[in-house]
Amino acid sequence: MKPSATAAFLERQFKLSERGTTARTEILAGFTTFLAMAYIIAVNPAILSQAGMPIAAVAAATCFAAGFATILMGFSANIPLALAPGMGLNAYFTFTVVKQLGVPWEVALGCVFFSGIAFLFLTLTGVRQVIIAALPRFMFPAIAGGIGLFITFIGLHNAGIVTAHPATLVTLGDLRAPGAALALVGLVLIVALHLWKVRGAVLIGILAITGLGWALGQAAMTPQPYDITALGETAFKLDIPGVFAPSAALGLLEIVFVFLFVDLFDNIGTLVGVAKRANLVKPDGSIDRLNRILFVDATATVVGSLAGTSTVTSYVESAAGVQAGGRTGLTAVVTGVLFLVAMLAAPYAQLIPIYATAPALILVGGLMMAPMAEIAWDDFLVSIPAFLTLVMIPLTFSIANGLAFGILAYALLKLLSGRLQKSDWLLMTLAAIFLARFIYLGAG
Fold it and tell me: Is 81 within 8 Å of 223 (Cβ atoms)?
């Protein structure tokens, strides 16, 4: 039977058969990724509104930036990687740049814009590609495992299974609480569906717990007044000349550097981890269409700043879609389209309770530990940097920090063991940059 024109286009564009997947699987994976990261539609406006930005406008900008960037990633790079305004960087934007340093949000958006331009420059000149090539191969599984622990911790916290404690930092939450109990039920359901080889198990689990939560009265929402035209309140409102104001040029340059630095290494870490999980890393450690992936990421930050939101970056929740079977850019395109659709009613993203997506993050995090078997744990030159990368990602809540500790440890051990070679010049340069960053900028 001759395939339809649509099926033929999808096969030609995304190489579904070559990647061992189907359009149905990719669509389910796209829905799964969207549901796993839809919280950003509500959370990002809540954070940036504290910088004085209109909350409805930020909600629209968040959906637009995520939708545009993720669709572009799918079509251009053919990888199941979704993007949206980054957590952590939005908090830095609001609480440090605007509230602590007193920078107007319009100027802060200008800083984000120039960090995106710098990204484009580093990508077009091949610097970012060279940095990825300089990473030792054992760092790839270590980063993947670290991200696995990271998103598991996020899932456990979102469900209320792990909570903060003043004496022990973290502790077991109240498992009798509705959110925690429903999340545990969801985890058991998703695992059972996987054991029974039910396709779309993660998506089914999220939707089932969402329905159960609403049926039991354990979900609520208070949508704010919203109109898609609200985007005009932040779109193109960035203040570019303000970034070069003589009175604050040095301080603003530092802000641009922080946006650039954190997003650069967060993105590299996320890309490596998700690509590893999706079996898209070649035996030699290279990633197919890397230039396109990095170009889209850089473009996303520029477009996001123009729309009116903080730095747009790759999302670790993409791994949820990968676990659901996503192997091509069609997964990303579906996720991106859903974000654009969400622009029509962004506040209603709260229909999916945060505890309903928590089981997916917990399960995916555990499955991302599989590459740990590839690390030579009996070789200290490998195992110590890998271990530091693995644990510092979740413990500092930063992929960039985990990468920094791993590279610094590897460079130092190579130096102390006398195994440093001339070809390691970029490794040592990266280590020096990370060290300078820790000394000058402190944590973050």
Answer: no
Residues 328, 396: one domain?
no
| Residue predicted with more confidence, 242 or 200 | 242
424, 414 Cβ separation under 8 angstroms: yes
pLDDT at 96 over 80: no
The DSSP call for residue 225 is P
Residue 346 has a pLDDT of 64
Is residue 114 domain-shared with residue 230, that is, in the same domain?
A: yes
Q: Which residues pair with 287 in a beta bridge?
A: 281
245 & 126 share domain: yes
Please determine, for residue 250, whether its predicted confidence score (pLDDT) is greater than 80.
no
One domain, residues 330 and 393: no
Looking at the DSSP bridge assignments, the partners of residue 84 are 313
Distances (CA, A) of 93 to 245, 288, 443: 19, 33, 15
Would 65 be classed as within a structural domain? yes
Q: How many CA atoms lie within 13 Å of 3's alpha carbon, on the beta-carbon side?
A: 10
Nearest to 158 by CA among 365, 326, 324, 342: 365
Query: Do residue 247 and residue 326 come from a single domain?
Result: yes
pLDDT digits (tens, 9 = 90+) for 174-211: 999 999 999 999 999 999 998 997 767 777 888 899 89
Same domain, 124 and 240: yes
Question: In the structure encoding, which two tokens stand for residue 66, read together?
Answer: 């995520």
Please provide the average confidence, as pLDDT, over all residues in the chain. 86
41 in a domain, yes or no?
Answer: yes
**Contact yes or no for 358/38 (Cβ under 8 A):** no
- DSSP 3-state of 82: coil
Sign of CA pseudo-dihedral 413, 414, 419, 420: negative
- 24 and 150 inside one domain: yes
The domain in which residue 399 lies consists of 375-444
Query: Cα separation of 108 and 102, whole Å?
Result: 10
Residue 355 within a domain: no
Rounded CA Rg of the chain: 21
**For 396-430, what is each residue's pLDDT tens digit?**
877 778 888 999 999 999 999 999 888 889 889 98
Look at residue 249 and tell me whether its pLDDT is greater than 70.
no
- pTM for the whole structure: 0.76
Q: What is the DSSP string of 346-401?
A: GGGGGGS-HHHHHHHHHHHHHHTTGGGGGS-TT-HHHHHHHHHHHHHHHHTT-HHH
Q: Which two tokens stand for residue 90?
A: 């939005």
| Structural domains in the chain (count) | 2
Residue 390 sits in the same domain as residue 260: no
- pLDDT number for residue 326: 93
Taking every pair of Cα atoms in the chain, the longest distance, rounded to a whole number of angstroms, is 70
